[in-house]
């Protein structure tokens, strides 16, 4: 993958916007000094105040907000090469985002640093007026520019492969992705933020009944790499009815597959998106303050009543004559004969050369290296809440029960260090709200996380408040009193 970092501007309008960003940041900076007292480690190793794992939109939003709050000793890690953070240049295959174009929050209150401002400067007011959702490639262009304009540094090609306590700190074992095993090194941090996206709770899930029956050579998850060239001329079966199912169907057909049959168990495809109902300030800002029953019921509702695919994705797929959609058609039997997969559904049988499962993610603490040490130690919702029988869900019960600032909660106080790890990813949905770490929720979730971090830092150095105040000697007044002659003059 090749990527050339952007310059400050690519044209007069964008260069002017960059200058305006710097002016607004300076204008809104007061009080603009770093204030967190450094922490020393006996080894002499540097201690970061915060290490953010993940340099996509959520990780950058948190880092920029911390910077504006005077917390500068922050490191962002990302396993991907520079310019390819997040999903937008990997497995995201939609032409446009799924959220409305006016969504803001990553810019932390700096208007010129917002996506709408960038879009208008790059592509013009008329182009902005002509869209309802930002194009995926242009959103990634914005994120690359945001990194530059916000002055953020990301250590790319660096994966977090383990977390462990180190006294009052957290030790992160990292690995250089360009070097592989043997390149591990340990970083120290007072707090760790896991900004690891939708699959940050575990892994993308291929249902067990599929993976058991079908060779890995003939099945993949929709949110993973797909060798489109190898599938040209093939018959494809897709399981699922969400946005990624239709986006992948269209992408496959555009790349020359013979046909796509999209199957799902519901008798009708959803047409109402209940997520739009809860996109208001009270819900997005105060979801964590609701009682456990309400928080559970909201997430259980979204588990049962799924959102529909986007209109664009639905229309795009149906625009191909070799696309077929089959409602009420769960895959009840699969037989892989070594050449093809024979699928039985209640409404017919199919023969496919390849399967794509658009089946979401699983909560699996063992599936991600940075979660393995946390899994046995942290409270899950099943430890804190017993759902009514009519609303029981084993899946929801596995989600972490998080504190007010997204911090994991220990099962026993001896493992208190886990409070210093903050799940700013989709695993926070049950505790913090289904939109908490998506772009539509950043306006409210980022300040909550950052306030929790700065409160912890301030509490840790409260012992210095009065000594510092008593020792303060910076004069603001020169008490020169003119004599009578000077007054007369």
What report would you give on this structure?
With 489 residues, the chain is α/β, with parallel strands linked by helices. The protein folds into 2 domains: 290 residues, FAD/NAD(P)-binding domain, CATH 3.50.50.60; 118 residues, FAD/NAD(P)-binding domain (3-Layer(bba) Sandwich), CATH 3.50.50.60. The protein contains 16 helices and 17 strands. The strands form 4 sheets. Strands 1, 2, 3, 4, 5, 6 and 17 form a 7-stranded mixed sheet that branches. β5 and β6 form a beta hairpin. α2 crosses α14 and α7 packs parallel to α10. It is globular. The N and C termini lie far apart (75 Å). The mean pLDDT is 94.
The overall pLDDT, averaged over residues, is: 94
**What percent of the residues sit in helical stretches (DSSP H or I)?**
25-40%
Uncertain stretches of 5 or more adjacent residues: none
Here the CATH topology of the largest domain equals FAD/NAD(P)-binding domain
CATH superfamily of the largest domain: FAD/NAD(P)-binding domain
Q: What's the Cα radius of gyration?
A: 26 Å
Short characterization:
With about 500 residues, the chain is α/β, with parallel strands linked by helices. It has helices at about 10-25, 55-70, 115-125, 125-130, 135-150, 210-215, 245-255, 280-285, 290-305, 310-320, 380-385, 395, 430, 440-460, 465-470, 485-489; strands spanning about 45-55, 75, 155, 160-165, 170-175, 185-195, 200-205, 220, 235-240, 260-265, 325, 335, 340-345, 350, 355, 360-365, 420.
């Amino acid at each position: 993958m090749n990527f050339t970092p952007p310059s400050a501007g690519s044209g007069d309008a964008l260069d002017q916007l960059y200058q305006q960003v710097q002016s607004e940041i300076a204008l809104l900076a007061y009080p603009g000094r770093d204030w967190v007292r450094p922490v020393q480690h006996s080894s002499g190793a540097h201690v970061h105040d915060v290490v953010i794992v993940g340099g996509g939109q959520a990780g950058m939003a948190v880092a920029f907000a911390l910077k504006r709050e005077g917390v500068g000793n922050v490191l962002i890690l990302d396993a991907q090469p520079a310019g390819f953070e997040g999903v937008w240049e990997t497995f995201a295959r939609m032409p446009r985002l799924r959220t409305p174009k006016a969504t803001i929050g990553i810019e932390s209150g700096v208007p010129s640093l917002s996506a709408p401002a960038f879009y208008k400067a790059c592509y013009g007011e008329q182009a902005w007026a002509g869209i309802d959702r930002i194009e995926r490639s242009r959103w990634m262009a914005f994120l690359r520019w945001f990194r530059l304009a916000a002055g953020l540094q990301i250590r790319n090609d660096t994966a977090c492969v383990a977390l462990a306590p180190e006294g009052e700190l957290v030790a992160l074992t990292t690995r250089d992705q360009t070097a592989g095993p043997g390149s591990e090194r340990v970083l120290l941090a007072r707090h760790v933020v896991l900004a690891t996206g939708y699959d940050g709770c575990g892994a993308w899930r291929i249902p067990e009944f599929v993976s058991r029956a079908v060779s890995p050579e003939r099945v993949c998850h929709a949110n993973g790499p797909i060798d489109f060239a190898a599938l040209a001329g093939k018959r494809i079966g897709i399981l699922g009815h969400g946005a990624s199912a239709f986006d992948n169907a269209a992408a496959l057909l555009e790349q020359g597959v013979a046909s796509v049959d999209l199957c799902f168990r519901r008798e009708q495809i959803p047409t109402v998106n209940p997520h739009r109902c809860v996109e208001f300030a009270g819900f997005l800002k105060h979801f964590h303050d609701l009682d456990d029953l309400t928080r559970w019921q909201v997430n259980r509702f979204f588990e049962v009543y799924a959102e529909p695919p986007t209109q664009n994705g639905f229309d795009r797929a149906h625009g191909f004559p070799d696309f077929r959609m089959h409602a009420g058609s769960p895959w009840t039997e699969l037989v892989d004969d070594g050449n093809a997969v024979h699928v039985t559904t209640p409404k017919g049988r199919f023969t496919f050369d390849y399967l794509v499962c658009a089946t979401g993610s699983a909560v699996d603490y063992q599936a991600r290296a940075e979660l393995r040490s946390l899994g046995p130690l942290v409270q899950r919702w099943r430890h804190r809440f017993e759902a009514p029988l009519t609303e029981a869900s084993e899946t929801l019960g596995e989600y972490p029960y998080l504190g007010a600032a997204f911090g994991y909660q220990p099962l026993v106080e001896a493992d208190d260090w886990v409070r210093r790890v903050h799940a700013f990813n989709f695993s926070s949905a049950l505790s913090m709200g289904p939109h908490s770490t998506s772009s539509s929720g950043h306006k409210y979730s980022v300040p909550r996380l950052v306030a929790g971090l700065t409160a912890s830092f301030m509490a840790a150095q409260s012992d210095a408040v009065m000594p510092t105040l008593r020792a303060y000697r910076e004069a603001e007044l020169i008490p020169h009193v003119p004599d009578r002659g000077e007054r007369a003059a």
